[in-house]
Amino acid sequence: MAQREGGVSESAVALTDMPARAQTFHRRARIVDAAVREIAERGYAQAAEADIAARAGVSEPMFYDAFSDKQEALIWAYEIAAAYAIPQILRSLHAASEWGQGASAALSAYLDILDCDHAWAMACLRDMPDAGRRARIARDVVRAPLVAALQARAVATSTERIGVKATLTAIDAIIVDRLRHDPTRPLGERQPELAALVLGRQPSGAVDEHFAAAERAPIQEPEIETLLELGGAGDADLRRLVREAAELRDGPTLWRAIAVLQRRQLSGRHAPHDIKQLALDGLEVAWFFGLRLDEPDGDAGQATDDACYLRFVAEHPGCSDEQVRNALGVRQLSSVTRALRRLEAQGALRRGSGPGRTGGWWRVSVASDSGA
Predict the structure, then answer these.
(1) Taken in order 104, 110, 112, 115, is the CA torsion positive or negative?
(2) Could you give the 3-state DSSP secondary structure of residue 351?
């Protein structure tokens, strides 16, 4: 689910040039995604916080700054996954006036979303119940609106006779079994079988289009640029779209708005500060499906250029390689070390000692670095 295609172009503005709260959101998203994948691969009991941190490219202290333990990270993952999925499922359910069609469309939406990322599906369905009582309570609270909507619309079908919660549990168990034994096959293939379980009969098969019609596409960067170029009227439209995105916890839209506004601000173009603040506020609880979280291989993929290193060392004299890596969110320590040594060879940095620190990095001439 976290790797769903969305046409995101974070490379337009360096990660380290984004506001601190945006960087925190991206780091937290990487940790959650890493937790989900580690738990899906190893099982909840065997997944370790240290391995999750390493997979996310952060230090253990940074993991614990974001989450108290792996249980909290998994609960957070489940909650943001539900914030992404449940509105789409409910829209599919309510798009048809007839119960059977609505339930079949909602099931199609559910399976399509789970097919976006099987690791997320496995962690949310198999491992949430294994993560303890707190996780099970969180799961029940999060899916309560969906259960209530299904109960309100259920008619004389197996769902009503067996109970909505029991039916959902059975569906999830079938999905987990499929993920365990045949993980490469799309879950959508099981829709007729699962619909028969819900409805007590074979569905019509003519309602799958409800999901495609119900899904709301996050706004893209060119659209944001166009609105900002319009001035006052465009600003008002963008302000409204950002508020809507914040209400929907739509992280990709908020991230793109911040990236565009930050890029325009750095280049001296029109970039309303209040809209960026609205977007930053919304990131505090946003989901991030459709936002690319991985970094390409190589030094360029670290989204960190020499100016970023020079600026950080100038602001934090005596810092170590590890401190630079953690602060800038660079995945590989070796990349940081190579960059710092290259700048040392160029005469821009020097190794030295300072009060309470040894072997740290220092700027040779801050004034000479007009780009930092």
Answers:
(1) negative
(2) strand
Alpha-carbon span 332 to 325, nearest angstrom? 8
Collapse the DSSP code of 363 into the 3-class scheme (helix H, G, I; strand E, B; otherwise coil) and give the result: strand
Q: At 22, list the tokens.
A: 């945006």
The set of residues, in sequence order, having a beta carbon less than 8 Å from that of 135 and lying 6+ positions away, is: 71, 74, 75, 78, 128, 129
Report the chain's mean pLDDT, rounded to a whole number.
79
User: With contact defined as beta carbons under 8 Å apart, do 316 and 323 qualify?
Assistant: yes
Percent of the chain whose predicted confidence (pLDDT) is above 70: 79
CA atoms of 318 and 320, how far apart (whole Å): 7
> How far is the CA of 319 from the CAs of 120, 148, 213, 327, 333, in angstroms?
37, 54, 52, 10, 14
Question: Which amino acid makes up residue 3?
Answer: Q
Q: Can you tell me the mean pLDDT for 188-205?
A: 67
For residue range 39-62, list pLDDT tens digits in order: 999 999 999 999 999 999 888 999
pLDDT band at residue 369 under the 50/70/90 scheme: very low
Q: List b or e across 240-259, with b for residues whose CB sees 16 or more CB atoms inside 10 angstroms.
A: ebbeebbebbbbbbbbbbbb
89 in Cβ contact with 111 (< 8 Å): no
Closest CA to 287 of 326, 247, 327, 258: 247
Would you state the pLDDT for residue 33?
A: 93
Helical axes 251-266 vs 20-42, angle rounded to 10°? 140
